[in-house]
Write a structure and sequence with these properties.
Largest sheet: 8 strands, mixed
Shape: globular
Helix content: 25-40%
Distance between the termini: 28 Å
Number of strands: 22
Number of domains: 2
CATH topology of the largest domain: Aminopeptidase
């Protein structure tokens, strides 16, 4: 039995995961991005319903908690609003049907909803539920026992289990240095009901799935599912790689589909449907007492008319926590992501997102649906990162960078797992200006591995030495720089307008559809 705290605190780790069964083979990530859809749907509808007298009683039905003991909050650098979205797996009340014997609650979904004002954009940052965080002092609230500060670490979903939403808020603020304004907590039942209320959601499966644990049984292809099946979809863990690391990627596509459906069905145009959505959401919702009706309407005004493509979904990069492979920790490089969000960098407005400079390279359709890992095969410092940045600017989704097993590569090598990815590999070779294609069945489906050879740096070395540089390279150097990549592009996320059938990499792995 694992201790919940590193260093022998002796406090038992919460066992139940979101979905009611054990963790996957790798460290579990925050999942159930379905809560994003609920939160966004809530924000979208409140403004239209505020004029209805009935809405006042619905608004008053939301449970509110007086969050105290936050201490000194990080500074705010912009006028954006940050909302901590918590998905609770409590089996209390109507949620008994998901496992009446499971006590307590855990924050299996933890996200920061970063909303720019004036309909400029949204970033949804998902925090892995098995992240290790410091143990802070928190007062009891919402039926939780609270906790005493002590040396060591704990799993972040235990922070919520023992200290409640206020403790989770305090911990997220102190570890990310992002100023939080409010929190919204939702549960299983609320998700099911809201998906039903918005008319269901379309999902795309690259193969049939028969998962007895989540009870998801669907054939290959596109399906339009209602609440119960949508819930089963994001609960499905033991497919593909069989981990929560991959499930969060699938749920990103689910949420993109929800946003697209809300837009296509003109949900805001039907007061009756809006009232149904907000009524069902309110029954399953808890917020901080500081989130007033006026504050919610301000949020709505920022989201009104925002197209799905202006919403970015990002997973917080993590690495395995050495003492416990079921946990993850945040590398120091994550501070750059937190700073970018805090200062609204890399969050393009909808107006600039739609426009592309005429001299900027367009993303190649051939690379849709694959992820690329870039390795240095020459030993040149930073070369893998430079190549990854080049590919990212062309629409390629990068899964990571590093060093190859040897630094003896003269020519770049683009490895692909099967003929299905050969076209994407060829497109990447073109982007790199050359290289060898190499079939490697050991790679997971939907993934490529690029090993950057020494010749990739020839042009840079020639320029540094003052030797002649080809005209094409001179013209490229003289061209104005492309607009900086968005956070989704930089960190391998997606936007709300992504084609939901480009999700092959989110299902790739040895487990197939079962």
């Amino acid at each position: 039995m694992n201790d919940n705290h590193q260093g022998g605190s002796g406090r038992a780790q919460p066992q139940a995961g979101f979905g009611g069964y054990g963790r996957g083979t790798r460290s579990a990530r925050a999942h159930a991005l379905g809560w994003v859809a609920v939160a966004l749907a809530l924000c979208l509808v409140v403004g239209s319903l505020a004029a209805y007298l009935k809405f006042r009683s619905v608004w008053d039905s939301i449970t509110r908690i007086d969050v105290t003991g936050l201490g000194q909050q990080p500074p705010k650098f912009t006028s954006a609003t940050n909302i901590l979205v918590i998905g609770s797996d409590s089996r209390a009340g109507p949620n008994r049907k998901f496992g009446a014997g499971i006590s307590g609650q855990r924050s299996d979904t933890i996200m920061i909803l970063h909303i720019l004002p004036a309909r400029r954009g949204v970033v949804v940052l998902s925090i892995p539920r098995d992240s290790v965080v410091p143990i802070l002092s928190c007062q009891p609230e919402d039926g939780t026992p609270g906790q005493v500060a002590r040396p060591g670490i704990e799993q972040i979903n235990a922070t919520f289990a023992y200290g409640g939403p206020g403790c989770l808020w305090k911990t997220v603020e102190q570890t990310t240095q992002l100023h939080l304004d409010h929190f919204i907590e939702l549960n299983f039942t609320g998700f099911e009901q809201v998906i039903d209320d918005v008319g269901g959601v379309s999902i795309c499966l690259p193969f049939p799935i028969d998962d007895p644990l989540s009870k998801l049984r669907l054939s290959q292809g596109v399906h339009h599912v209602m609440g119960a099946e949508a819930l089963a979809f994001w609960r499905a863990r033991y497919i593909g790689e069989g981990s929560d690391l991959q499930r969060i990627r699938r749920d990103q596509y689910l949420m993109a589909s929800v946003l697209q459906g809300i837009k296509q069905k003109d949900l805001l145009g039907s007061p009756a449907r809006l009232l149904k959505v907000i009524t069902d959401a309110a029954r399953s919702m808890t917020t901080d007492s500081g989130l007033t009706l006026a504050g919610m309407i301000t949020i709505v005004d920022s989201l009104r008319g925002l197209p799905p493509g202006a919403v970015q979904f990002i997973e917080l990069p993590t690495v395995e926590y050495g003492p416990n492979p079921n946990w993850v920790t945040w590398p120091a490089s994550d501070t750059a992501l937190f700073s970018a969000i805090a200062h609204d960098r890399g969050i393009r407005s909808v107006h600039t997102t739609a426009a592309r400079r005429p001299d900027a390279p367009a993303p190649a359709p051939a690379v849709d649906g694959v992820t690329v890992r870039v390795l240095s095969g020459s030993g040149v410092t930073g070369i893998a990162g430079q190549a990854a940045a080049d590919l990212t600017s062309r629409g390629v989704r990068i899964s990571g960078t590093g060093d190859a097993a040897a630094f003896s590569y003269e020519t770049s090598v683009i490895q692909y797992p099967s003929p299905a990815e050969q076209r994407a590999a060829a497109a990447v070779r073109t982007m790199l200006g050359g290289g060898q294609l190499q079939l490697d069945p050991a790679l997971a489906a939907g993934t490529l591995q690029v090993i950057i050879g020494a010749e990739f740096t020839v042009g840079r070395k020639a320029a540094a030495a003052g030797t002649a540089v080809p005209a094409a390279q001179t013209a490229a150097a003289a061209a104005p720089p492309a607009s900086p990549p968005s956070l989704a592009e930089t960190y391998g996320g997606i936007t709300g307008s992504t084609n939901v059938c480009n999700d092959g990499a989110a299902f790739a792995g040895p487990r197939g559809g079962s």
